[in-house]
Design a protein that fits this description.
mainly alpha; globular; 143 residues
Length: 143
């Protein structure tokens, strides 16, 4: 499976993620770690704490609709994996997020920007694991 090269959309997405991370830190004093935001929204939190988390999650979910406003169509998303592979992958990510005390957005975007040694190790682990997984999926199992 080959992926499309989208430098402008990728750059715009990076700007939006970076802006959101900076604004969340400036306005709420919080790290933009999506897993932590979701866990806090689902867990027993105060109303004010839950409100910003739910708004953040709704904003993330609104992305395709904002894209539609500018392009006239929804983005096409294809998932070339079976439901079983997605479930196993989701479980692996859940275990990794728990063991790593955070996700790629928390460690990779915010932690690296703060020069956190723990985030450097976590992000290197995420990236190396991702590279190995892609290699195995594309060249060993498909080959």
């Amino acid at each position: 499976m080959e992926t499309e090269f989208t430098p402008l959309a990728s750059f715009a997405g990076g700007l939006l993620i970076g802006t959101a991370a900076v604004l969340l830190m400036l306005l709420r004093g919080r790290i933009l770690g999506v897993t932590g935001i979701l866990a806090g929204a689902l867990g027993p939190a105060g109303a004010e704490d839950a409100t910003w988390r739910i708004l953040m999650l709704l904003g993330m979910g609104a992305g395709p609709w904002v894209f539609h406003l500018f392009s006239g169509h929804l983005p096409v998303i294809t998932v070339p994996a079976s439901l079983g592979v997605l479930v196993v992958g989701g479980l692996c990510v859940g275990v990794g997020v728990t063991l790593g005390s955070g996700c790629t957005s928390g460690h990779g975007v915010c932690g690296l920007a703060r020069m956190s040694p723990r985030s450097v190790v976590a992000t290197l682990t995420f990236m190396l694991t991702t590279g190995a997984t892609v290699f195995v999926m594309r060249h060993v199992l498909e080959g």
